[in-house]
Amino acid sequence: MVRMLDILAEYLKYRQFPFQ
């Protein structure tokens, strides 16, 4: 399931660059 990988990648990106 590529969708899961896409979501995971986005989640990791957000964790690295949190927009607070």
Automatic annotation (TrEMBL):
Keyword ATP-binding in record: yes
GO molecular function: helicase activity
Keyword line: ATP-binding, Helicase, Hydrolase, Nucleotide-binding
Protein name: Chromo-helicase-DNA binding protein-z
Source organism per UniProt: Aegolius funereus
Record lineage: Eukaryota, Metazoa, Chordata, Craniata, Vertebrata
Gene: CHDz
